[in-house]
Design a protein that fits this description.
The complex is a heterotrimer of chains A (470), B (468) and C (357).
Chain A lengths: L2 H11 L6 E8 L2 E8 L5 H13 L6 H7 L5 E4 L4 H6 L2 E6 L2 E8 L28 H9 L7 E8 L5 E8 L5 H12 L13 H4 L11 E3 L2 H9 L3 E5 L5 E4 L4 H4 L2 H4 L3 H30 L7 H11 L6 H21 L2 H21 L5 H13 L7 H18 L1 H16 L2 E2 L2 E2 L41
Antiparallel strand pairs in A: 1-2, 2-4, 3-5, 4-5, 6-7, 7-9, 8-10, 9-10, 11-12
Chain B lengths: L1 H9 L1 H18 L4 H4 E11 L5 E8 L11 E8 L2 H12 L2 E3 L5 E5 L8 H9 L8 E5 L3 H14 L4 H12 L6 H8 L5 E6 L1 E3 L2 H5 L5 H10 L5 H4 L9 H6 L2 H5 L4 H14 L1 H5 L6 E2 L2 E4 L4 E5 L2 E6 L1 H11 L5 E8 L7 E19 L2 E18 L8 H5 L3 H25 L6 H8 L1 H10 L11 E10 L1
Parallel strand pairs in B: 1-4, 1-5, 5-6, 6-7, 15-16
Antiparallel strand pairs in B: 1-2, 2-3, 7-11, 8-10, 9-10, 11-12, 13-14, 14-15
Helix pairs in contact in B: 10-14, 16-18, 19-20
Chain C lengths: L5 H12 L7 H9 L3 H25 L4 H9 L1 H33 L6 H17 L2 H28 L12 H10 L9 H4 L10 H27 L9 H7 L11 H30 L5 H19 L3 H10 L1 H4 L1 H23 L1
Helix pairs in contact in C: 1-7, 1-10, 2-8, 3-8, 3-10, 3-16, 4-5, 5-12, 5-14, 6-12, 6-13, 7-10, 7-11, 7-12, 10-11, 11-12, 12-13
Classes of the chains: A alpha+beta (470), B alpha/beta (468), C mainly alpha (357).
Chain lengths: 470, 468, 357
């Protein structure tokens, strides 16, 4: 088949998309064909490093062509890989003198520079964040490990998207079995596309339908590096700044980057407060409604007077009232997330001042209910990574509290804990190091011990080298 | 749909949650708060009504729709053949169930204490929502009027009656007067217990007039007995119990002669001179009566009142028990190098009592070793000459001796009072039995009247005074 | 079934020690043994510790399950009879704990709620825990252990704060103390659950100390609470059915904290859930031994149905519960204080003889 026909066939396979560009160079009866996506390749590099040098070549043999191209990203490909290479921003070169095909990667797109991710701002510590470009992300990781032990293995996932997925781990530290299992699970993914790393999560966890997050994620290279050092495996996915880490235990959500860049006593205090925060967020509205509907008698008279006086004029029953306020807060939260920042401020004013204050003054909602819901909603964000799960549980506990009171809330809590105890991913018990209780891991648990005291890697999952420092 | 159902059955707890929501969650949407279903009662009053009915008064918190969280109380009255029936009627009137969980005080008219008061308390004790640590107060007025006064006091000022009672119980007179203490006493050997007594006077001003003289001056004015002898003299009234009398402190033996007068006078004052008492103690009040909380108590035997004890009596008893936590001791007409014919007021900083029992010839001897830490804080002399602080603080040996005598006589007074009424408030029987069970058993068997065993117990008091 | 480590076993032991001993029992014992009731605790706990000692000895010598031991040494029929009795024992304990807690809550915080509310709370949760692996149950107990411990310390300290009285001793004789102990022996004998899970407990040399330590700490808590109760209420102890709640309630001056006795309510709720789950798991285990062809679902269904029938038809109030606890249950408790120890001793001796040969 001559080159023109080959290129025509490829164009057809690419459905004659407008940006599919082909060029044909003829010299002394020899033909060289170029085909690429003009929207995804660097035209300047194409003309200066590929087209011009080849056009100056007297005899267009395959070897000459290969030698004249001024690029390092040059490789020979098979016929079946042509489309994939074009789609990844490469220029595919055909020569009439040889059946071999060349692919030169001159992909060009506007990647943003690494900046501080909005999900994990720090007061002290590095402000770099991963970007959507996997190469940049790999670079960010590589510059933190000058050791040859950082192993990166790539594969492509998704029938349509062919997304590049890179599995990173530290050789000699990470458990090989975990790496093997991760690779196996990734290879077995049969989906048409992976748009974000989140799409991979259900394929990697033991309970894909669970409410609870079972794989860690981070936008920060310093966090991912720390997790790799703990013996975890990282999964980088192209087109997303979110890097996955596993095995995952719930304790990781209580750990914040700032904890490691500040005094350990202060960090421990903050972690303790975070725990209180999460309990307030989970149980606050539920316990309040349970007390109102079932157990007024356990409230001291002084609190009872405040609650009784303030709820007298309310037209709603306590459950409806608290549901209404909870929904209102959730709507305000959703709105403020999606609106531009200048409008977000306006909604905050409307929400906090007008709806809250006027609602109380108008006698539609009571101040204690507003306070309880507000505290619970604010407390949700003491661990922002878990806010989705906590919000759902908050509503469930609210319903349980209103339905069956304190007995149900404690029962629900026991159920949730038992359920979490039954989750195990890649050999790591979800609630480790609390249950099973691992003393050494608790040095970085509810309290954070000084870094010098953290001599071992986490024992809640298997690592090949447990010792971190002497 | 089929998949959805199969998924739900795979997670049975989801099914349970759905079930709970259906059965309890949806009805909860229309459920009122419990504070709207229950009338929150903070005090109960019991009076004897006509035809042996119970007049029940409930001090009930009434929620008000306003933002300043005012404590609005109302006294609800109802009568019935039993407390429970009256309670039901009160509930009907209020349109709510009666919630007794927050009751802090039960006021019982003294009429009930003329017979077995525990009969009327039966329901209140059985109802588990009423804590047995709830205070019981006996009053000479109608309990409903008492609650009216409490209501005005609670609603109009930050002074709460139960706070006053708690303070009184905890620090001043140490009269634990709760259902608990009442029944503890009732089930003890001598079936005796103490109940706080609070009077109600019509004239509000009287109630508000505080006179720090308390029971001490009461004795002085009544019998003219100024020094420690006044208490000790009561030994005389125990004519039939020579043991207790002869073995008590030295101070007591000196002034035996004045016994009868003093005790009689005191009883008169308790029963007949209510108004005189009313000028003592604190307690606030407004229109419609004022509460007089002067530390008085009633002594019950078999849940029946046998005596009314003044605050001075209570002080004397509590000196012996060591429960006297705060308060004053006054010595009248004291003279030494510094003072001449002065009235010295000592503040008790701390007190500790060690009680030891020994048996001699089958007779129990209770040794009471007291350590009193006092501070001289007030001295009044005829010539009104102000002494320098340093002089006041250095209490002379003579003063300490006088104080020792005063303490001895006070304790003797207290013990004699208990002997007279055969009430073992000091839990002497428990002390004897727990330390010498076999001797105690023998001793009790040797007595003609076991209930009067206190008279056969010898008390040895040895106070040690320390100036702080 | 996945195994549990010795710490989780010790925590379960700790939790089960409190079953029914800090709520209704102190008051019931006082009716017969007065202030000497503490000695009833001491006698029963001594027996419990002996039971634990036997378990530790047995565990050191055998790694197989208790059922296979009985089967091997005494025959299959003995094993079935034995495990049926154990099943009944665990069932009765479950019913007793549930009833006591139910009456407690009905009196105090669920005055206007129907009994179905309690069923819908307790049964699904305990069923879930019993249905999950033994490891999940152990780990769940482990998570709640710090909360239980902190609340217990708080309750114990608070109950000791208000003690200002001395009860009257020497009013009852040794006979009364023994009578009271036997009458209420059904509230003890909880350590027998260890035998049921014998093969599911990871046990190394020296682990026995950990079990002793946790058991003794729990016993110390129970004794302290009982002493605080008797010293607080002396003559009126019989009037206070809910010991731990009432010892906290007597502290009148709460300061700004409000009703701190509600802390005891939360403790009772957590303990009841976990204790019922342990008993139910033991029941399921016994059921599966008796009916090896049936799985735990059948065990749970049969438990739930019988439980509902007993709770709804037989015992609904405090009086009946007490009657049932004092009259019927002590006979079933023989299994924990007589049959199991007897078997354990036989197995230990038999092994010794074999080794001697």
């Amino acid at each position: 088949m001559n080159i023109s026909k080959k290129m025509e066939k490829i164009k057809k396979e690419l459905h004659y998309s407008f940006d599919v560009t082909s060029r044909l160079l003829t010299k002394n009866g020899d033909e060289v064909g170029f085909i690429y996506l003009k929207s995804f390749t660097d035209n300047l590099i194409f003309s200066s490093a590929i087209y011009e040098p080849i056009s100056k070549c007297e005899i267009l043999t395959f070897e000459n062509i290969k030698n004249f191209i001024q690029s390092n990203d040059i490789k020979e490909i098979k016929e079946g890989e042509i489309l994939e290479n074009i789609m990844k921003g490469a220029v595919v070169v055909f020569s009439s003198s040889s059946p071999k095909i060349l692919s030169i990667d001159i992909q060009k797109f506007n990647a943003r520079a690494p900046s501080e991710p909005p999900t994990a701002p720090v007061i002290q510590g590095p402000r770099e964040g991963f970007t959507e470009d996997i190469k940049t992300n790999i670079g960010l990781l590589r510059k933190r490990f000058f050791s040859p032990n950082l192993v990166l293995k790539n594969l492509s996932v998704g029938k349509e998207t062919k997304t590049t997925v890179v599995v990173a781990y530290l050789h000699g530290i990470a458990d090989r079995k975990v790496v093997k299992e991760v690779m196996k699970k990734l290879k077995n993914i049969d989906t048409d596309g992976v748009v974000d790393s989140y799409y991979l999560m259900p394929y990697l966890t033991s309970r894909p339908n669970s409410l609870f997050k079972q794989i860690g994620n981070s936008e920060k290279p310093d966090i991912v590096s720390a997790k790799l050092l703990e013996g975890r495996v990282a999964i980088l996915v192209d087109n997303t700044p979110m890097v996955l880490t596993l095995p995952f235990v719930i304790l990781e959500e209580m750990q914040n980057t700032n904890d490691y860049y500040t005094n350990y006593i202060y960090a421990s205090l903050l972690r303790f407060i975070r725990m209180i925060g999460i309990f307030l967020a989970l149980l606050g509205p539920g316990v309040y409604i349970a007390l109102q509907l079932f157990h007024y008698n356990v409230l001291p008279i002084k609190y009872l007077i405040t609650i009784a006086d303030s709820t007298q004029q309310i037209p709603f029953t306590p459950f409806i009232e608290i549901l209404f306020i909870s929904l209102l807060f959730q709507i305000l939260y959703e709105v403020s997330l999606r609106l531009p920042s200048y409008l977000g401020l306006a909604t905050s004013v409307v929400g906090a001042l007008i709806l809250g204050d006027t609602g109380v003054k108008a006698g539609l909602i009571s101040p204690p209910a507003v306070i309880v819901v507000a505290i619970a909603k604010i407390a949700l964000y003491t661990i922002p990574e878990q806010s989705a799960q906590t919000t759902v549980l908050q509503f469930i506990f609210l319903v349980i509290g209103a339905s069956v009171g304190l007995l149900g809330i404690v029962g629900g809590l026991i159920y949730v804990i038992a359920y979490l105890n039954s989750i195990e991913n890649f050999g790591a018990p979800y609630l480790a190091p609390f249950s099973p209780f691992i003393i050494s891991d608790n040095k970085d648990g509810v309290v954070r011990a000084p870094l010098l005291n953290m001599k071992t890697r986490p024992k809640s999952f298997h690592t090949e080298n447990i010792r971190r420092q002497k | 749909m089929k998949k959805w159902f199969s998924h739900i059955f795979k997670v049975p707890m989801l099914l349970v949650l759905l079930f709970v929501v259906l059965i309890y969650g949806f009805p909860a949407l229309g459920k009122d708060a419990e504070v709207d279903e229950f009338a929150i009662v903070t005090a109960i009053g019991l009076d004897r009504g006509e035809n042996d009915e119970v007049d029940l008064s409930l001090l009930t918190f009434m929620p008000v729709a306003e933002q300043n969280f005012k404590e609005n109380y109302k006294v609800v009255k109802a009568s019935g053949k039993s407390v429970l029936e009256a309670m039901d009627y009160a509930g009907l009137y209020l349109g709510r169930e009666i919630g007794l969980n927050h009751v802090k005080m039960v006021v019982i008219n003294e009429d009930y204490f003329t017979e077995n008061a525990s009969v009327e308390m039966d329901y209140l004790v059985r109802d588990k929502s009423l804590a047995l640590s709830t205070s019981i107060i006996c009053t000479d007025a109608k309990a409903s009027e008492f609650l009216d006064a409490v209501q005005k006091m609670d609603s109009s000022s930050s002074i709460k009656v139960d706070d006053i009672i708690t303070f009184n119980n905890k620090y001043i007179y140490s009269t634990e007067s709760t259902f608990e203490s009442f029944y503890k006493g009732l089930y003890s050997k001598t079936k005796s217990s103490l109940v706080s007594f609070i009077s109600l006077v019509d004239n509000a001003d009287e109630g508000l007039t505080a006179d720090s003289s308390g029971g001490q001056s009461q004795n002085g004015s009544q019998g003219g007995q100024s020094s420690g002898g006044s208490g000790q003299s009561q030994n005389g009234s125990q004519g039939g119990q020579p043991n207790g009398q002869s073995q008590s402190s030295k101070g007591g033996q000196k002034e035996q002669g004045e016994a009868n007068k003093s005790s009689q006078n005191e009883e008169q004052s308790q029963n007949g001179e209510q108004s005189q008492n009313s000028s003592q103690g604190g307690g606030g009040g407004s229109q419609g009566g004022a509460l007089i909380n002067d530390g008085k108590s009633i002594l019950c035997k078999n849940a029946q009142m046998v005596a009314s004890l003044s605050n001075n009596d209570m002080k004397n008893i509590n000196l012996a028990s060591g429960a006297f936590k705060k308060g004053t001791i006054i010595i009248e007409n004291f003279s030494d190098d510094v003072f001449k014919n002065a009235r010295l007021t000592f503040d008790i900083q701390n007190i500790s009592v060690r009680r030891k029992v020994q048996f001699k010839n089958g007779q129990p001897i209770v040794n009471l070793s007291l350590k009193l830490y006092v501070k001289l804080l007030e001295a009044k002399e005829e010539d009104l000459e102000i002494k320098e602080n340093i002089d006041i603080k250095n209490i002379s040996k003579k003063a300490i001796d006088a104080l020792t005598e005063k303490v001895k006589s006070s304790i003797a007074d207290g013990i004699n009072l208990l002997r007279e009424y055969r009430c073992d408030i000091l839990k002497i029987y428990t002390l004897l039995n727990n330390s010498h069970p076999f001797e105690t058993k023998k001793f009790m068997e040797s007595l003609e009247d076991e209930g009067n065993f206190l008279s056969s117990v010898i008390f040895k008091v040895s106070p040690r005074i320390y100036s702080v | 079934m996945k195994s549990v480590n010795v710490y989780q076993t010790a925590i379960m032991l700790f939790i089960i020690v409190f079953a029914n001993k800090i709520l209704l029992l102190p008051s019931l014992l006082y009716r017969t043994a007065s202030a000497e009731s503490v000695f009833c605790y001491l006698i029963a706990f001594t027996l419990e510790i002996l039971l634990l000692t036997l378990f530790i000895f047995l565990k050191r010598k055998y790694s197989t399950s208790f059922s296979s031991l009985i089967k091997a040494k005494l025959g299959k029929i003995s094993m079935v009879v034995f495990y049926v009795l154990l099943m009944i024992f665990f069932f009765c304990k479950c019913v007793l704990i549930y009833n006591v807690t139910y009456i407690f809550f009905k009196d105090l915080i669920y005055k206007n709620s129907g009994s179905f509310l309690f069923i819908i709370c307790f049964l699904p949760i305990t069923n879930y825990l019993a249905f999950s692996s033994f490891r999940v149950l152990g780990r769940t107990c482990q998570i709640f252990f710090p909360i239980i411990l902190v609340v217990l310390i708080f309750c114990t300290v608070t109950s000791l704060v208000g003690v200002n009285d001395i009860p009257l001793f020497f009013t009852t004789g040794a006979g009364d103390v023994f009578l009271a102990t036997i009458k209420h022996i059904s509230s003890f004998g909880d350590f027998v659950f260890l035998f049921v899970f014998m093969d599911k407990i990871e046990f190394k040399a020296g682990d026995g100390k950990k079990l002793y330590f946790f058991a003794l700490i729990a016993i110390l808590f129970v004794l302290t609470l009982a002493v605080a109760f008797y010293f607080s209420y002396t003559y009126t102890s019989f009037m206070h059915p809910y010991a731990i709640f009432e010892t906290m309630g007597k502290v009148k001056d709460y300061g700004g904290l409000g009703r701190i006795d509600s802390v005891a309510v939360v403790l009772v709720i957590i303990l009841t859930y976990l204790q019922m789950a342990i008993y139910l798991k033991s029941f399921v285990c016994c059921f599966c031994e008796v009916f090896p062809k049936l799985n735990s679902t059948y065990a749970l269904i049969s438990f739930d149905l019988t439980f509902l029938a007993v709770v709804y038809l037989l015992i609904r109030n405090l009086e009946k519960t007490v009657l049932y606890a004092e009259s019927v249950l002590p006979y079933f408790s023989l299994i924990s204080f007589f049959l199991v120890p007897l078997c354990a001793i036989i197995f230990l001796v038999a092994k010794d003889k074999k080794e001697g040969k």
